[in-house]
Automatic annotation (TrEMBL):
Record keywords: Kinase, Membrane, Transferase, Transmembrane, Transmembrane helix
Entry protein name: Phytol kinase
Domain of life: Archaea
PANTHER family tied to this protein: CTP-DEPENDENT DIACYLGLYCEROL KINASE 1 (PTHR31303:SF1)
Example of a GO MF term: ATP-dependent diacylglycerol kinase activity
Membrane-spanning intervals of the chain: 12-27, 33-51, 90-107, 113-134, 146-168
InterPro entries reported in the protein's UniProt record: Dgk1-like
Length: 206
């Protein structure tokens, strides 16, 4: 994926910051409703994205009301920012929404807000720094520069919400999860890695 496409993809992923924003402004129940509704909508619409038959039917119906050239432009942009494996399988947005719902429901407010913000913003910064400026590459294609960018971003976010020892361990957990791209999808595992680590460290250490 080109750097331009990567920036477009990460810009779209930054919409995930609406989850901690809703939590901060309106509380836990509003955040759960927002994420839950988003997840249901994603599930309903997903077949239209990955099943060609459904997608073609939708395009024909939309073509009655929307300029066909605009439809083609939108479809092309979606294909450009999608990972290869996402073009015929579950998209990152579904994994993200599912993990965000679990985290908001089960974890304390500061951990939930921090872990979702870290996974969203940290991943974006790692890609934007790592792809053009990454000079020290690992076998999996990740770069030292990108990982450091993630760690610093995560540390800044978490240290504004929790104490420094917890912020350090949470940032490290997120960095490792992002580096190894833990299954089933890094948009799922990254958030949970930070949340579970912070919760465990808080309860074991204190």
């Amino acid at each position: 994926m080109s750097m331009k496409s990567e920036i477009k993809r990460k810009s779209l992923h930054l919409a995930g910051l609406t989850v901690p924003a809703v939590y901060l402004l309106f509380g836990k129940e509003a955040a759960l409703f927002f994420v839950g509704l988003s997840f249901v909508m994603f599930i309903v619409l997903e077949p239209l994205r990955i099943v060609e038959h459904f997608r073609d039917r939708l395009k024909r119906k939309l073509g009655l009301y929307v300029d066909r050239q605009l439809i083609e432009i939108v479809e092309r942009e979606i294909d450009i920012i999608a990972r290869e494996h996402e073009r015929r399988s579950i998209g990152a947005h579904i994994y993200f929404a599912l993990a965000a719902f679990v985290i908001v429901y089960f974890f304390p407010r500061d951990i939930a807000i921090g872990s979702i913000a870290v996974a969203t913003l940290g991943d974006a910064v790692a890609a934007i720094i790592g792809k053009p400026f990454g000079k020290h590459r690992f076998k999996n294609g990740k770069s030292l520069e990108g990982s450091l960018a993630y760690f610093v971003t995560a540390l800044l976010i978490l240290s504004s919400l929790i104490d420094l020892p917890h912020a350090l361990i949470g940032a490290l957990a997120g960095t490792l999860a992002e580096f190894y791209e833990l299954p089933p999808d890094d948009n799922f595992s990254n958030q949970l890695a930070v949340a579970v680590t912070l919760y465990a460290f808080r309860n074991i250490a204190f």
